[in-house]
Amino acid sequence: MYDYFQGHVVAKTPTVVVVEVxxxxxxxxxxxxxxxxxPSVGAEARIWAYVKMHEDxxxxxxxxxxxxxxxxxxxxxxxxxxxxxxxxxxxxxxxNEIWERLRDDDAKGLAxxxxxxxKIAQRxxxxxxxxxxxxxxxxxxxxxxxxxxxxxDATSALLVLGYSEAQARKATEKAAGSLPADAPLEDLVRExxxxx
Length: 196
Description:
By secondary structure, the protein is α+β, with helices and mostly antiparallel strands. The chain has helices spanning 32-37, 66-76, 83-92, 95-103, 107-110, 118-141, 145-160, 165-178, 185-194; strands at residues 4-12, 16-21, 24-29, 44-54, 57-63. Strands 3-2-1-4-5 form a five-stranded antiparallel beta sheet, with helices on one face. α4 (95-103) crosses α6 (118-141), α7 (145-160) crosses α9 (185-194) and α8 packs across α9. The longest helix is centred in the middle third of the chain and has 24 residues, at 118-141. It is globular and about 60 Å long.
């Protein structure tokens, strides 16, 4: 239904945020993690959304990032874990820590969260273990995002200078191979120009 919404924060508590988008106020239930990371009232924010029907009424949940939302949705698939439990887990642990506990069958650790009993925690570990393994493997193999952004920026700079997409990409990748991973963008562009 909704993927995300972006607007100005008009109200914020530890469990609820209201964001105004084009004159409409969206009230979303959030975790403490999301509430702490969102900007203060008056600032602009993007909220990743999830809508769940409850007794024929929609409930809107908001998340600071897609990763938190994806984990919340996965948790909802476990019998006995409702929205309140999902938000409680996300308020007590970072998403990656929850994925690791699911992977490691750490039901005892998950059961420390209010409302999550040992049986429900064990069920979550069993049902989400494979998903946790895939998530952690994917996360470990993901490219370095700042590095990818720098490569994209350097390629764009060469495109502006009149090089073709293929020339710019090849030169930028060659430059990246001969410079340290934390090299400034200017050095990356300079080295790429030498390779054209």
